[in-house]
Amino acid sequence: xxxxxxxxxxxxxxxxxxxWWADQLDGKVVEDNDGYFCIVETPMLPVRLAFQxxxxxxxxxxxxxxxxxxxxxxxxxxPVVAKLIAGxxxxxxxxxxxxxxxxxxxxxxxxxxxxxxxx
Length: 119
Prior knowledge:
The chain has 2 domains: 1-56, 2,3-Dihydroxybiphenyl 1,2-Dioxygenase, domain 1 (Roll); 64-119, 2,3-Dihydroxybiphenyl 1,2-Dioxygenase, domain 1 (Roll). The protein contains 2 helices and 8 strands. The chain is α/β, with parallel strands linked by helices.
């Protein structure tokens, strides 16, 4: 049997990107390995996020991305997205279906992720 241990991002600045995600998710960098392989723990996610230093990140759109759900206690999607943009994320697209909405963003290193309404 397998369990999901962590989700790993390739980046040219592992420590910088790990600190950004830790700040956005109220987490902390728990391992930095001299900036080569950094690990973030956050109370908001059931797994750790890892950031691995690479010479060249994969070009093009991510084939896997985070889908984060805003909580009702945070006021829902809109204030969460506004905070992420203020913190350095970029809004890429907004998607709306009947009864469900999400925003597509990029972190400061270009990794795509989504934020949806609570569900």
